[in-house]
């Protein structure tokens, strides 16, 4: 069993994508503080979704 699962890296990538996109939008609309807060929040939510989705895929592989 790996200590760090593959789903974690996928989830981390999703998190950083959300944060980077939010920071870019914050610079465009001159609302960096609001956009970065929203980006971190959305990033954490989608990071959780991606990680738990990966866990479900692993369980499906084990059941087959």
**Tally of helical segments:** 2
User: Structural class, from secondary structure content?
Assistant: mainly alpha
What is the 3D shape? elongated
Q: What is the share of helical residues?
A: over 70%
Q: What proportion of the residues form beta strands (DSSP E)?
A: under 5%
Report the major sheet: none
Q: Average pLDDT value?
A: 81
Q: Indicate the low-confidence ranges by residue numbers.
A: none
Question: Can you put this structure into words, describing what you see?
Answer:
The protein is mainly alpha-helical and 64 residues long. The protein has one domain. 88% of the residues lie in helices and 0% in strands. It is built from two helices and no strands. Helix 1 runs antiparallel to helix 2. The chain is elongated. It starts with 5 loop residues before the first helix and ends with a helix. Keywords: Membrane, Transmembrane, Transmembrane helix.
């Amino acid at each position: 069993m790996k200590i760090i699962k593959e789903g974690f890296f996928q989830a981390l990538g999703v998190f950083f994508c959300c944060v980077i996109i939010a920071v870019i939008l914050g610079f465009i609309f001159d609302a960096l503080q609001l956009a970065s807060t929203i980006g971190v929040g959305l990033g954490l939510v989608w990071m959780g979704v991606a990680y738990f989705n990966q866990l479900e895929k692993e369980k499906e592989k084990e059941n087959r």
